[in-house]
Write a structure and sequence with these properties.
By secondary structure, the protein is an alpha+beta fold. The chain contains 4 helices and 11 strands. Helix content is 27%, strand content 37%. The strands form 2 sheets. Strands 3, 4, 5, 6, 7 and 10 form a 6-stranded antiparallel sheet that branches. Strands 1, 2, 8, 9 and 11 form a 5-stranded mixed sheet that branches. Helix 1 links the parallel strand 1 and strand 2. The longest helix has 27 residues. It comes from Shewanella sedimentimangrovi.
C-alpha cells in the first residue's frame, strides 16, 4: 500500500496563540489539511450616543448640598429638548448625600461638610450634537462626564457583514495557499466562528472632569465605528494520486 504523507499548511501570518485556539476548538483531522483564519471589518457612522454624567457638590449643610445638585439636574433637564433628547431618554440614580469627616488628634470624628451626588445616563440620538451637548452639560454644573458609548442601530447587520467578510477572506487565503502548493482544496472539515466575540471599536472620549474654572474645547466626536470579526476554517486537501 502506498501511504501519503500528512500535510498541514498553517496560514503564514497565523500567530501561535491562534493556532492553539484552532487546535483546542476542534480536533484536527487525521489527513492532509489546511487551516486559515480570515478577518473582516466594516465601518459605519454612529447614530446615537449613550452618555454618563455625574454631578457632585460639597457644602457645609446637607440640605444646601442637595439643593445645589437638584438645581444642576433641573437646569440640565430644562435644556434637553434643544439637543433632541426626550425625558424618557434620561435615567437618574437616587440622590446620595453623605458627610465628609476626619478625626482630630483625640480620635474624635469631626464633620467637615456634606457631599451630595447624582448620576445620570442620557441617550443622544443625533451624534452631530454631541460636542455642543457636552458643553451645555458642563455649563449646567455637571462635574464629570465619565463615559460615552457610541451606538449604531444597524449594529447586528454590521456584525454579520463583518463575519461574512471574514469567511470570504479565509476562503481566499486558503485558495491562494493551495494554488501555491500545487494541491486542491477539498471539503471544509471545521468552521470555528470566533466571530462570536464580534466587537465594535470607537475611539472617542472616555472621561471629562471639571478641575478648574476654564475648559478647553476638544474634539469629542470621531467619525466612524469599527466592527470586526474573525473566522477560522479547516479544509481537507486533495493531494492527487501521484503524491
Amino acid at each position: 500500500m502506498n501511504f501519503k504523507p500528512l500535510l498541514f499548511v498553517p496560514l503564514l501570518m497565523l500567530s501561535q496563540p491562534m493556532l492553539s485556539q484552532i487546535a483546542n476548538a476542534s480536533e484536527l483531522p487525521a489527513a492532509a489539511h489546511l487551516a486559515v483564519t480570515g478577518k473582516g471589518m466594516v465601518t459605519a457612522k454612529p447614530d446615537s450616543a449613550e452618555i454618563s454624567l455625574n454631578v457632585e457638590v460639597t457644602e457645609q449643610e446637607a440640605l444646601k448640598a442637595k439643593g445645589r445638585v437638584d438645581a444642576v439636574v433641573n437646569t440640565l433637564m430644562s435644556g434637553l429638548a434643544d439637543y433632541g433628547i426626550e425625558g424618557k431618554d434620561v435615567t437618574a440614580s437616587q440622590l446620595n448625600v453623605e458627610p465628609e469627616t476626619r478625626y482630630d488628634d483625640n480620635n474624635n470624628r469631626v464633620i467637615l461638610g456634606h457631599r451630595a451626588s447624582r448620576r445620570l445616563e442620557a441617550v443622544l440620538k443625533d451624534p452631530s450634537k454631541l460636542s455642543d451637548f457636552l458643553d451645555f452639560a458642563l455649563k449646567a454644573g455637571i462635574t464629570e462626564i465619565d463615559g460615552i458609548q457610541m451606538r449604531s442601530s444597524k449594529a447586528e447587520a454590521l456584525k454579520l457583514k463583518a463575519q461574512s467578510k471574514a469567511v470570504r477572506d479565509a476562503k481566499t487565503q486558503a485558495e491562494r495557499l493551495a494554488a501555491e502548493l500545487g494541491v486542491k482544496l477539498g471539503s471544509i472539515y471545521s468552521i470555528i466562528p470566533e466571530s462570536r466575540n464580534l466587537s465594535s471599536r470607537y475611539s472617542g472620549i472616555e472621561r471629562i472632569e471639571v478641575t478648574g474654572s476654564r475648559l478647553s474645547k476638544p474634539q469629542y466626536l470621531q467619525e466612524e465605528m469599527e466592527f470586526s470579526a474573525t473566522v477560522s476554517l479547516i479544509f481537507l486537501l486533495d493531494l492527487g494520486d501521484d503524491r
